[in-house]
Each structure stands twice: as structure tokens, then as C-alpha cells.
């Protein structure tokens, strides 16, 4: 079993099975699997992530994105994550995904994250590409602050946001540039452009696993694949074989949630029609809708853990 983070680090929330992405991915590197990183947006998705990990006995990463700020205050969501974290019996990290600025990352660090991502490849609007030197500067600044309290840092280089160009080799991460980036910043993990994208593909995505191998041969830190939803299982396994150690999943969880909600909506409409026909009072129970959706998300996450090879590794 993975060991929790060593004592003496200053983050007050570290206890039990809570550790860092650096520690989780180092173990994955030794054993040849990838750790799943799953987005938490509300109570049901958070419960589903922890439940899946317990059932699969899989180390995992639970993520919050800065877009959460449009939905709820991050400290409210973090409090719920922390409550479940304290009861967890499998190793895990709490991670900020795609922090866009130093100040934003510092805000999440103060919550007690054990891992953060600074995405310096884009400007703060999340759309406009940012130059290499600017990426280096902001990433190094975050690394210095986070490492001072024992928190892991993920950086990014490449064109992960170029959705319409995801099948073009010329936007893939350059192995030599990746090596320079790691040396210049001191990041613990590196997100790379290898053919995947965020969200769903229009067709079948391609992972350039040879490029993964080339980057892994020159980079000393674990590699991260963003946009894992929709990638064929065999392609995912090949990517893991070549060196991917962290895989982000969000859309697949949302799809499972939506499918379950739509199924429950059909059920409710039929129940209402039956009740109306019998002259009975309609029943309203939000839990009857959200519980099946939570179970669907749990099963979707379990499936990814199995494909990533992390099941049974805790």
C-alpha cells in the first residue's frame, strides 16, 4: 500500500490516506499503471469518486477546477471533500486542475490542497496562448510557493486546448522542449499534448503513443494525459504502457450523470401519468433522482480505474 505523505509537511489537512500526486504517480511509475484524476462538482460526484475508489481499492486524485467558482465557493466543496477524505481507506490527493494564475492557485493552496496545476500555456482567459517564457515564469513561481509547504505541482506544455486540431502532429508536445520546461520550472508532473483533447471527440481520437515514449525518455517526471474521455481503451492502455501516469476524466462522469437523470425523468413522467390517472397525489423526492445518478457516476469511474490499471493497487 502507498504510504501517506511524510510527517512534518505544513499542510494541515494531511492525514490518513491523504497524500500528494507526486507520491501517487511515483508509485504508479514503479508498477506501470496510471492514476485516475476525477473532477468533483457537487456532493453526488464527490461521493461517487470516493465510493468507486473504495470498491476498486484504487489510489486516485480528486480534482476541483477554478470554474467551480462559477457554481459554488471552493471552500464549501473542499469541506465536503475533506470530510470524505478523512474516512477514506485508499491513498488519494486533492488537486486543483487548470489554475490559470498565481493568485488563483494561491487561493486554492490556502484551502489545503495537496496538489495544484498551474496552466501557464494559456493566459488567464483560458483561451489565448501564452509564450514559453511567460509559462516558465508563472510556473516556477507557483512551484516555489507550493514546494515550500510540500505540495506537488503539475505544469503544462503543448496545445491541449486546440480541439479542432487534436489529430495534427505539429501541435504535439516537443520532447526536447518538455525536458527544458521541467528543468526550468521544477514541476513534479507534466501535462502533455499527445493527441487527446478536453471534452468529447467528433469521431475516434488518436493517441500518439510514440510521442509519449519520446517525451518519457527525456523527461524525469510523470506525464499527464488530459482529455481521457472517449479515448478507446486499447489506446489508453498503450499510452499507459508508454509512460502516462495520471489521466484526467470529467466528461465521462457527466455523461453517466446525464444518462441516469434522463432515465429517471422518463420514470417520473410515467409515474405522474399513472398517479394522475388514478387520482393519486404526485410524489416528489430529489433523492430518488440523484441516487441512481450517483451510482451511474460511480460505475463510470470504476470502469476507468480498471482500464488505467490502478484497481487493486491500494
Indicate the low-confidence ranges by residue numbers: 1-13, 162-167
CATH class: Alpha Beta
The CATH superfamily title: Aldolase class I
Strand content: 5-15%
β-strand number: 8
What is the CATH topology descriptor?
Answer: TIM Barrel
Major sheet description = 8 strands, parallel, barrel
Mean pLDDT: 88
State the strand order across the main sheet: 1-2-3-4-5-6-7-8
CATH architecture: Alpha-Beta Barrel
> Structural class from helices and strands?
alpha/beta
Order of helical and strand elements? HEHEHEHEHEHEHEHEHH
How many domains would you count in the coordinates? 1
Instruction: Count up the helices.
Output: 10
How does the overall form come out from the CA principal axes? globular
End-to-end C-alpha gap: 5 Å
Fraction in helix: 40-55%
Please give the structural blueprint.
Blueprint: H1 21-31, E1 35-39, H2 43-56, E2 60-65, H3 74-87, E3 92-99, H4 102-109, E4 115-118, H5 132-147, E5 152-157, H6 175-185, E6 189-192, H7 209-218, E7 223-225, H8 233-242, E8 244-249, H9 251-278, H10 286-308
Parallel strand pairs: 1-2, 1-8, 2-3, 3-4, 4-5, 5-6, 6-7, 7-8
Helix pairs in contact: 2-3, 2-10, 4-5, 6-7, 7-8, 9-10
Structural features, described:
With 314 residues, the chain is of the alpha/beta class. The protein has one domain (21-308): Aldolase class I (TIM Barrel, Alpha-Beta Barrel). It has ten helices and eight strands. An eight-stranded parallel barrel has the order 1-2-3-4-5-6-7-8, surrounded by ten helices. Helix 6 (175-185) links the parallel strand 5 and strand 6 (189-192). The longest helix has 28 residues, at 251-278. 48% of the residues are buried.
